[in-house]
Fold:
Amino acid sequence: MAEEKQAQEKQFSIQKIYTKDISFESPGSPKIFTEKWEPSVDFNLGTNSTPLEDALYEVAITVTVTVITGDNTAYLVEATQAGIFSLSAFSDEEMGPMLGSFCPNILFPYAREVISDLVAKGGFPQLLLAPVNFDALYSQHVQQKQQQSASSSTLN
Structure:
């Protein structure tokens, strides 16, 4: 009986965290370094989860930052930070938030560091990305899916 209880206990562990893809472009260099620095920042974020085997999942977040000063692109940096996570004995209702919010929260600080390092190595002022509320983003995503399914079912 104790074995049954242990078998049903929720288990979560990080198997591996890694940078899956990185890119840095500075199309306006070296001229961009002689111009007045008045940056405009465009930030995009995406998440993805893929089942691997048994209770293993790859979760990846992709951060894309484009910085424009004046009419010129100063730089474009993109990083995909990923992790392999072991999740067992979670219900279907719990798996969504675990893969869509909890795991991305773990990965984001690593992505922030990669982005910051690439920008600095590119010769630009340090870029520190603000923290992201993945819980709120996941909730928005769920609401959007519910609205889409409700609107598509009313069309039928």
